[in-house]
Write a structure and sequence with these properties.
Length: about 160
């Protein structure tokens, strides 16, 4: 982390990251005609949504608030700096997702190190780091499959995501 973030800032950035990831995966899923591949992206979108809810629950427990924190002013808006609004191919979207999952894992692990005085928060952040690592592995396999057999994905090899 660039600067020392408070636990609330870490959670706030993480919530926005999970929102951005869910939106990204949901948007990609809508553009994929191959039902098997689309289902993977829909599943990732749903899981990122569950991560968001987990983080909101943690935030509410810590602060006593009833709703998620307001967006933190300044950049980055999310743990990974936010998603670009456009990719030009399915391969690019997979590569971008892989990179973002790596960044999210690192963010959560680093955050967990900084909140060692709150074992519950540290546990949640390490859990999320593990989940993001699982997404990384899934997407890495997906990229390998895409490169190996582009015909399987041929229903929609080119996609464009507009913001």
């Amino acid at each position: 982390m660039e600067k020392e973030l408070t636990l609330i800032e870490i959670i706030g950035l993480a919530i926005r990251s999970e929102e951005a990831a869910a939106f990204f995966y949901g948007r990609v899923a809508k553009l994929i005609k191959n039902k098997i591949v689309r289902a993977k992206y829909e599943s990732l979108a749903e899981e990122e949504g569950r991560h968001r809810k987990l983080l909101i629950g943690l935030y509410c427990k810590i602060t006593g608030e009833k709703k998620p924190p307001a967006k933190i002013a300044g950049k980055p808006a999310t743990a990974e700096g936010g998603f670009p609004v456009m990719v030009t191919s399915l391969e690019d979207s997979i590569r971008l997702a892989i990179r973002r999952e790596e960044e999210a894992e690192a963010f959560y692990k680093n955050g967990a190190k900084h909140v060692i005085d709150d074992s519950a928060a540290s546990s949640v952040l390490m859990y999320l780091a593990d989940m993001e690592h699982g997404h990384f592995l899934l997407l890495k396999s997906e990229l390998e499959a895409f490169i190996r057999d582009r015909d399987f994905y041929a229903d929609n090899p080119e996609i464009q995501l507009l913001g």
